[in-house]
Amino acid sequence: MSVVVAERLRPRVASQRVERIAMLTVHTSPVATLGSRDAGGLNVHVRELARQFDAIGVDVDIFTRRSDPVTPEIQHISPRARVVTIDAGPPAEVFKDDIFCYLPEFSSEVALFSLRDGVRYDIIHSHYWLSGWAAHLLRRYWNVPVVHTFHTLAHLKNAVAGSSRPESVMRLQVERRLVDIVDTVIAPNPDERAELVWRLGGNNANICTIPPGIDLDLFTPRDAHVARRKLGLPERPLVLFVGRIDAVKGIDTLLDAFAALVRTYAPEESPLLVFVGGSLADNGNGFGDDLQPVVTRAEELGIRDNVLFRGSAPQELLPDYYAAATVGAVPSRYESFGLVAVEAMACGLPVVASRAGGLKFTVDDEVSGLLVHPSDPKALADGLRRIIDNPGLRASMQVGARQTAIRFSWQAIAPAMLNLYERLVEGERGDLCCLGEIYAS
User: Which pLDDT score, from 0 to 100, does residue 32 have?
Assistant: First the structure.
């Protein structure tokens, strides 16, 4: 008997009411390289949540749309958790809004897969607005409860988008409709829960606050000197940025702030910015279309020699980057949670983050890092310098960062999510759960 089969036949908990979960991430695969287009915190959250359910004996199938002709139909990310790639539309990258017209085909193909595979699902958990609509369509085949997590909301992104392309009217309309038709919406923080109620007209009793979780065994403090040698980083003050190339990530603010920061040091003592995200050229000697504008802006600001562009990195390598850095920069204009900030803090890295979205709840100001006004390069530069130049403050925040991150352990988050699923399967609706107290503990 193969290892996979043996594990999938592992005994279940006697009282377990949820045995198999269907998760939907139509627009992006949970195994996509982090930092590439459309691959970030959502991907990590879905993949790790599935693995947590595996550990307690629940099967999970994660359905995603095929965006290339070579990916296998089924990929195991753990013995009980599979990524299932569904043919719907062309096997190529498609602009996200254009995926909407392929959702009926996607949903019917998912239903056919379950028939061919001889499996049934107890609940659907959809992630992002496109997946939410696909889950709505799947209901006619499966007649099971639907839990939905938006991850980002269009009207909140549009509020901070500036000159970048706004989210579509179609997305705005679908998100508003989903609040009414799914059984439960998961909000990652109390502010977003309030937005779902007051701005999108959601039923307060059907919106549950459960933040994403963090793997505290992977993201744990490490020796900085060892990490720097492993990554080929110098013994200089290092400011770390990790994230996708997206206007809401505040990369323009970061570069302006870092330029101001560098000018306050002698050249031989100035910090370096380690930029993890975006794509490098295939030969490693250039930059992808997403990253090139960032490189060009660094050149215009005269800081190109102070920025180390590392491209995307696998999650397993991120703890070394967090360990090697002196301070993390999270200048986002909008984050529903701020997973990078929590990962960094779990590794004992203080962060300077925007007082925006979920970051207001995940970063404990003056304890695990500093919160500054978003889109304010001076405030960001001042915060970074304060931590770099003050070893005592930095040491105190290293301890506070780890303690802050512990609140978001998967050991607390995954059982809460499973409890929600089970109560929905039992027929309960309304006032199911609210873990907002995690933020205040």
Answer: 76
> Which residues are CB-neighbours of 50 under 8 A, at least 6 positions away?
21, 23, 30, 60, 62, 77, 78, 81
CB 199 within 8 A of CB 302: no
Whether residue 280 is contained in a domain is answered as yes
User: Is 139 in a helix, a strand, or coil?
Assistant: helix
Three-state DSSP at 347 gives: coil
Beta-sheet strand order (sheet of 146-149): 74-78, 81-86, 59-65, 20-24, 123-127, 146-149, 184-187, 207-209
CA 160 from centroid of its chain's CA atoms: 19
CATH number for the domain that contains residue 243: 3.40.50.2000
- In which domain, by residue range, is 254 found? 224-406
Averages of pLDDT over each 10 residues, the chain, 441 residues: 30 64 95 66 92 95 96 96 97 93 98 96 97 96 96 90 81 96 94 92 90 94 97 97 92 98 93 95 80 96 96 93 98 93 98 95 96 97 98 97 95 92 86 54 43
Asked whether 35 and 59 are in contact (CB, 8 A), the reply is no
Burial per residue of 183-201, b for 16 or more beta-carbon CB atoms within 10 angstroms, e otherwise: bbbbbbbbbbbebbbeebe
In a domain, residue 219? The reply is no
In what helix (H) or strand (E) does residue 309 lie, and over which residues does it extend?
strand 307-311
Q: Do 245 and 298 fall into the same domain? A: yes
Alpha carbon distances (Å) from 112 to 115, 144, 164:
5, 16, 39
State the pTM of this model.
0.88
- Residues 146, 273 within the same domain: no
Contact 105, 88 (CB under 8 A): yes
| 125 backbone dihedrals φ, ψ, rounded to 5° | -120, 110
CA 229 remoteness from chain centre: 28
- Predicted local confidence at residue 437, as pLDDT: 47
Q: Are residues 394 and 419 in the same domain?
A: no
